[in-house]
Amino acid sequence: MATDPGVLDAMTPPGYTFPTIRLRQQQNDPSRDPLVLVACGSFSPIHYVHLQMFAMAADYARNETNYEVVGAYLSPVSDAYGKRGLARAHHRVEMCELAVKHARQPLMVDPWEAQQASYVPTAKVLDHFDREINQLRGGSSGKKVRIALLAGADLVETFSQPNVWALHDLQHILGDYGAFVVERANSNIEQALSSLREWRDNIHYIPAIISNPMSSTMLRLLLKGNMSIEYHVPREVMDYIEANGLYKDEMVAAPDNKKAKSAEGSSS
Ligand SMILES: Nc1ncnc2c1ncn2[C@@H]1O[C@H](COP(=O)(O)OP(=O)(O)OP(=O)(O)O)[C@@H](O)[C@H]1O
Ligand SMILES: O=C(O)c1ccc[n+]([C@@H]2O[C@H](COP(=O)([O-])O)[C@@H](O)[C@H]2O)c1
C-alpha cells in the first residue's frame, strides 16, 4: 500500500529540494511510456558498474520495451542502515554527485533517503519518487511516469530470503512499481525469479553482455590495504576518498539493525 502523502511530506529534510535538473518533463518520443529508474543501495563507494547499470537499463528499455527513460536516480541509504564499513551518508551522497557529473544518462542523486534519521524501506523510497514526480509535478508529457527499481541480481535474490523484506513491501515494489534487474556474477537469478513469478510481468531481467564482478566491498578492501582503486571509480571520486581519508578504518558503527545484519550477510 502506498505511503500516505502527508507522511512523506513530513519526512522532507530541512533545506531539501527534489533534484530535477536532468528530469525530462517532456518526452523525446511521446509514443512511448515515460520511465524513471531508481537505484537504492549503499554506494560506498560508487563505482563504474553502478553507473553502467543505468546505461544497460536504458538500452534495454529502448530496445526491448515501449518505455523511454526520462530520469534516473541514485538514492544512497542513510546512516541508520548501519552496515559495517560504510562511509557516512553525506560522503556517499557527495561521491555519487561527483560520479554523475559527466553522465550522458539523465542521472541524478537524490539525498532524501540519505538524510533521514531512521531507516526507510525501499517501498517508501519509491513512494517518495512517485509523490515528487507524478503527484507534485504531473509526470512527463502529461503522462504518469512509471517509477521502477533498478537493481543488481544479488539484491533481487534477497527478496526471497527470510526476514529481509516485508511481503507487503515486495507486493508494492514489484506489483505497483516494477524492477529492472541487471545480471550480476555469482547470482542465481533463475531461482530468485522463480519465487517471484507472481510479478513476472513487472520484472525486466537484463543479461550483461560484458559482466563485471566489481563490488564496493572489494574497493573498500583495496583501500584498506593501501592499494589503488584507479579505473574502478571516476577520478573525482578517488580524489574525494583520498582528500577525506575514507575507508582507512571501519567507518560507521553498526547499530543493532536487522537490515544491516542481513546486508552484511549478503555483502559481495
Ligand atoms: N558488479 C555489479 N553487477 C551488477 N549489479 C551491481 C554490481 N555492483 C553493484 N550492483 C548493484 O548496485 C546496487 C547498489 O549496490 P551496492 O551499493 O550494494 O553496491 P555493491 O558493490 O554491491 O556494494 P557492497 O559490496 O558494499 O555490497 C545494487 O542493486 C547492486 O545489486
Ligand atoms: O525495504 C526493505 O525492506 C529492504 C531490505 C533489504 C535491503 N533494502 C535496500 O537494498 C539496498 C541494499 O544495499 P546494499 O548496499 O546493502 O546491498 C539498500 O538500499 C537497502 O535499503 C531494502
Task: Break the fold down into its secondary structure elements and pairings.
Blueprint: H1 5-10, E1 33-41, H2 48-64, E2 67-76, H3 89-100, E3 107-109, H4 122-135, E4 146-152, H5 153-157, H6 167-177, E5 179-182, H7 189-194, E6 203-206, H8 216-224, H9 235-243, H10 258-266
Parallel strand pairs: 1-2, 1-4, 2-3, 4-5, 5-6
Helix pairs in contact: 3-9, 4-6
Bound molecules: adenosine-5'-triphosphate and nicotinate mononucleotide.
Shape: globular
Largest sheet properties: 6 strands, parallel
Spell the H/E element sequence: HEHEHEHEHHEHEHHH
Strand elements, count: 6
Order of strands, widest sheet: 3-2-1-4-5-6
Explain what this protein looks like in three dimensions.
Pathway: Cofactor biosynthesis; NAD(+) biosynthesis; NAD(+) from nicotinamide D-ribonucleotide: step 1/1. Its EC number is 2.7.7.1, 2.7.7.18. This is Nicotinamide-nucleotide adenylyltransferase. This protein is an alpha/beta fold and 268 residues long. It has a single domain, classed as HUPs (Rossmann fold, 3-Layer(aba) Sandwich), CATH 3.40.50.620. It has a six-stranded parallel sheet with strand order 3-2-1-4-5-6, sandwiched between helices. Helix 3 packs antiparallel against helix 9 and helix 4 runs parallel beside helix 6. The longest helix has 17 residues. Adenosine-5'-triphosphate binds next to strand 1, helix 2, strand 4, helix 5 and helix 8. Nicotinate mononucleotide binds next to strand 1, helix 4 and helix 10.
